[in-house]
Amino acid sequence: MKITNKHNMPSMLQRAIEKEYTYRDKRYSITSLLDPDRVIMLKRRHNDEIEQDVTDLIFALLGTKTHFELENIDLLPNEYVEDHLEYTFENGYTLSGIIDHYDDEYLDDYKTCKAFTLIFKSDYDKWKKQLQMGAYLAYKKDGKWRKKGRIIAILKDWNKLKAQTEYNYPKFACEVINFDLGKPEEVEKMILERFDRVIELESMKDKDLPLCTPEERYNTGDKYAVKKKNNKRASKIHDTLEEAQKHLDNLEKDYPNIYEIVKREGENRKCKEYCSVCKFCDFYKEIEERKE
Ligand code: SF4
Q: pLDDT tens across 213-260, in order?
């Protein structure tokens, strides 16, 4: 991946961010396995062509700094930090991962994230799988299964006033989310199923890769505008066609044939703003071409 500096930020920021991950055949990191199917493959295949700007990666730098501070602690017996682990399965595929922290009881991962991630629990499923795969690698290393996983979430936008006034807002700038990691056999099954899927994906051309789901694309959902036929502006925008139809039926009673319903397609916010491989994705290219 190339790091660009389009906005002329001080060069040390660029140098601090530049860190290469080398892709190897049949080796997949835990984080890559958690990506949507299309993203996993496009990232690997186009790694040398992907560009990201320093300004888009500043928060990643903040995360790295946090990790650095937490790695440099005095370790207790049986405590490990920043452990690089790998395990190769009988099918020849290797799972790799860096475990932030673990001891005999817990396996932990540090996240610098926004408060809404905790409020909406939006990444919890992904976080659990990440911890499970990490626990599996640690288990393969020392034969000990850690059933307890924790995400230590550091909330970079935490607001004290909101914490005092909003009931579902995180109470502290650092929150611990506990996960039950189940049994090693269940986790092994999950990993092997993911690798089976990866093997299928590897044989597909870019254009045939399964499209990311609306949730994975952060799709905002289609809306239905009720508007006067010659106007651009809507009188009202509805979330469902049924609601819009009801509205139109009411208007028709007093103003027949004046109004209409127009569907407004939802935006794919991830594709547009956060997907590093969008340039190589035919779905995204098509949307952009349609706009032009
Ligand atoms: S551009 Fe959208 S659909 Fe394409 S890979 Fe990225 S997130 Fe998925």
A: 999 999 999 999 999 998 989 999 999 999 999 999 999 999 999 999
CB-defined site of ligand 1, < 6 Å: 36, 38-39, 42, 211-212, 217, 268, 270-271, 275, 277-278, 281, 283-284
> Residue 215: what residue type?
E
112: closest CA among 191, 174, 166, 162?
A: 174
Q: Print the domain residue range for 21.
A: 2-208
Nearest atom in ligand 1 to the alpha carbon of residue 270 is 7
Task: Write the pLDDT tens digit of every residue in 83-112.
Answer: 999 999 999 999 999 999 999 999 999 999
Structure tokens at 3: 């790091």
- Residues 230, 152 share a domain: no
Domain with 141 in it: what CATH number? Answer: 3.90.320.10
